[in-house]
Write a structure and sequence with these properties.
The chain has 21 helices and 13 strands. The chain is α/β, with parallel strands linked by helices and about 475 residues long. Helix 4 packs parallel to helix 6.
Length: about 475
């Protein structure tokens, strides 16, 4: 590797992508193998990226284009143009939410008009195909062409292809005969919940069997173009196996390190608007010794830490729950970064230790379910509203219908509960016998992320090396 070309250009437009690439030193491993790496990002101010790039000699390039077409209204319309929204719970929910929360007659009329357009296009696939061609033309960007001409990468790897900068760069890479494009997704829900990617790639790096099947089903990708590797940042979980470091962490938070605890990861209120009520219900049960010596750690979602009025109220309710038995594990957000959900580098390692020490894990359908399974921890999902009566599009009940969540429940990876009675029953059953569904949990984990051996990062490196050496 003596030429001046960049070997690999990774696009990082989200904090979770940064976590995936930096936490287990994926980029550093590629550099130590002799590859020249560049990072393309819309957020050159992210301190994690700044520090990592400086330490490893990585070229960091800012690319943050604007587009009159891709701003605002088009992103609302897009699902009607290209998706069968009635067959996708995540997209149908967005349609109903937009319709119900439209603040004016004209806004409601627009959304209803979009829906009529969807009905027409759903029966006219040739017209939908023409629109897809028009959309691709809108992705042309001389700045993206110039950037790739300057870097001249052998591989261009996108992590969040629904993002405009990533789609434009993929478009530029796909039309170049000097660049091979790759998609390496940052999350398990991107294929089934985000809508059809504006740009595809020539090769794909997959979390596990389920994601591989989804690439084949939704994008008709041949299996030989998909590399099933596992998830790099999940390797951290394997490294904490058997460790007692969690005792020092929970002691510092004010809990008794010799007593057991439940870990409750809250979701964003958008998905589970009454989950805070369920957390308060559980905290009171624990305070009354209804689960013996049990303690409780509650971790808010990063989205809960903004400064809007609703989140300020939620934060105050969380603070009010704190006691000698209940503590809040506040996510360590990275300040002054324009990357969504960018976390301090040590946050995930502490999170992994806390999962290693817990008796069971609770969440409402987030990736924490898979994180927990990597520690063989039982997962209970309270998929019910503490206050009944919410419409489907607003209720956590709709999570039952999300494709990625339904697959995990159907595989037995998690136990989903429909009311407080079921929730309490499952908590008590798991506390009495944590291993009662262990075999199904481990099989579900394997389908999602493959072998739990702590070597996913190395498998990604091997996949990238294989792809870069293709003729």
């Amino acid at each position: 590797m003596t030429d001046k070309r960049t070997d690999i250009a990774y696009i990082i437009s989200h904090g979770f992508a940064a976590r995936m690439l930096l936490q287990t030193d994926l980029l550093g491993r590629l550099i130590r193998k002799g590859y020249k790496i560049a990072v393309i990002t819309p957020a050159k101010n992210d301190q994690n990226l700044i520090n990592y790039a400086k330490e490893h000699g990585i070229e960091m390039i800012e690319y943050n284009p604007s587009s009159s077409l891709w701003q605002g209204e088009y992103m609302r319309i897009r699902k009607y143009l290209f998706e069968d929204i009635k067959k996708n719970a995540a997209l149908w929910e967005k349609h109903l939410r937009d319709l119900k929360m439209a603040g004016s007659f004209s806004r409601r009329f627009k959304i209803q008009l979009y829906y009529v357009l969807y009905l027409i296009l759903n029966n006219l696939p040739f017209l939908r195909k023409w629109l897809a061609g028009y959309e691709k033309k809108s992705l042309k960007d001389p700045a993206a062409d110039e950037l790739l001409a300057k870097l001249d990468p052998k591989l261009l790897i996108a992590t969040y292809p629904m993002n405009l900068p990533e789609s434009r760069l993929l478009y530029a890479g796909n039309k170049s005969d000097r660049v091979r494009t790759v998609i390496h997704l940052l999350s398990w829900d991107n294929i089934t919940c985000k809508g059809y990617f504006p740009q595809l790639a020539s090769r794909y790096i997959s979390w596990g069997n389920i994601m591989t099947q989804e690439f084949m089903e939704f994008y008709k990708m041949p299996k030989e173009h998909i590399y099933n590797t596992g998830v790099p940042h999940f390797d951290l979980h394997k490294g904490t196996q058997g460790s007692l470091n969690y005792k020092e962490i929970i002691k510092a938070k004010g809990l008794n390190p010799e007593k057991p605890y439940i870990f409750f990861a809250l979701g964003a209120p958008y998905f589970s608007p009454t989950e805070i009520d369920i957390a308060e219900w559980l905290a009171k049960k624990i305070e009354r010794d209804e689960f013996g010596d049990m303690q409780l750690i509650i971790r808010p979602h990063p989205q809960n830490l903004s400064d809007n009025k609703a989140d300020t109220i939620l934060k105050e309710r969380l603070k009010a729950m704190q006691s000698s038995r209940v503590v809040i594990d506040w996510p360590k957000m990275l300040k002054s970064s324009s990357l969504n959900w960018s976390m301090q580098m040590d946050d995930m390692l502490e999170f992994a230790y806390l999962l290693e020490g817990c008796r069971l894990s609770i969440n409402s359908g987030s990736t924490v379910s898979i994180d927990s399974l990597l520690h063989d921890k039982p997962v209970i999902q309270p998929l019910f509203d503490a206050k009944p009566g919410l419409p489907w599009w607003q209720s956590v009940d709709r999570v039952w219908d999300y494709t990625h969540c339904k697959k995990l429940v159907d595989l037995g990876g998690v136990i989903a509960t429909k009311n407080f009675e079921e929730f309490e029953f499952e908590i008590r059953r798991y506390l009495d016998n944590p291993a009662y569904s262990l075999a199904r949990m481990q099989q579900a984990r394997f389908e999602e992320v493959g072998v739990n051996d702590g070597n996913a990062t190395e498998r990604v490196v091997e996949a990238i090396e294989t792809i870069i050496n293709l003729h």
